[in-house]
Amino acid sequence: MKLAVIEIGSNSIRTSIYKSSKKNRFKTLDRWREPVRLGKSIAQSRLLTNEQIEETIDVLKEFQDRIQKFDVDRTSLIATAAVRLAKNQAQLIFAVLKETGLQLEVINETEEAYYDYVAVRNTMRIKDALIVDVGGGSSEISLAKKGRLKHGLSIPIGAISISDVYLTSDPIKDQELMKARKAINGHLSTLNWMQTPAIFVGLGGTMRALASILNREGKKKKTLHNSIITYEQIDTLFERLLHATNEERRKIKELSDGRYEVILGGILILSEIIKKTPSKQIRFSNFGVREGYVFNYFYKANKMMKQAN
């Protein structure tokens, strides 16, 4: 069975092609992404513009053309925070169905945190994990103990929303940083369960960019998945990027696709979260919502096949 999953995020639209194998496992045949900043307007007005909707449909049509070459059994289209928070999400859903024939499934907060957990549970040998996914429009935080999900939620702050609302100067002013930290901590203050001893697992676009930069600069050849990043490394990189201009950040290979504009907001969220945990380091996961969705899909599909037999 082959499954294509298109994920509309706050910072980009990503597509992966998966082929199922035995025991609910799968391999990735191909993947690609296109930067589409839906989260920018959401942070400011909670509305998707007509231009953003048209751009999204154009990207989806291009991806459909590529997907055809793989002869997939199904194409799933999912969306996370940017669409979830949009007051006019129905307009996008209708336009997408009309123009592409795809039914857009908007993942709710609980589902997004759950899919992150499923991805980590199936790709890392960790029983106790604090799973943090800093996206463009939201951040998901989950706690697994003894391999079981105990807490999972989404908070409406992400790399784009923090950067666009609070970190607007170039270079960033101290007062802006202070207000951003206060806003982030306002969402974290009641999450006392984050103090539970567990391995801190980080995923999402911000973490991927950090891991990629540090991996390149450290001249490491091992894969990014399961790599370790210390809080000191994050803090040092943040200070470096903070005192760089937008143009200087744009020249960094891993940030050149538009992430340079929002990376500071993303790192700030990660930094404030880790301060509230016993952890001193983060283990990077290269798998997240999309893969969690796929694990869940193939598990259910295989279960139905067994029942039918």
Task: Give a description of the structure.
By secondary structure, the chain is an alpha/beta fold. It has two domains: 2-106, Nucleotidyltransferase, domain 5, CATH 3.30.420; 123-287, Nucleotidyltransferase, domain 5 (2-Layer Sandwich). The protein has twelve helices and eleven strands. It has helices spanning 38-45, 50-68, 81-85, 89-100, 109-123, 159-165, 174-188, 205-217, 231-242, 246-250, 263-275, 289-308, and strands at 2-8, 12-20, 26-35, 74-79, 104-106, 129-134, 139-145, 148-155, 199-203, 228-230, 281-284. The strands form two sheets. A six-stranded mixed beta sheet has the order 8-7-6-9-11-10, with helices on both faces. Strand 7 (139-145) and strand 8 (148-155) form a beta hairpin. Helix 6 packs across helix 11. The model has no long low-confidence stretch (mean pLDDT 93).
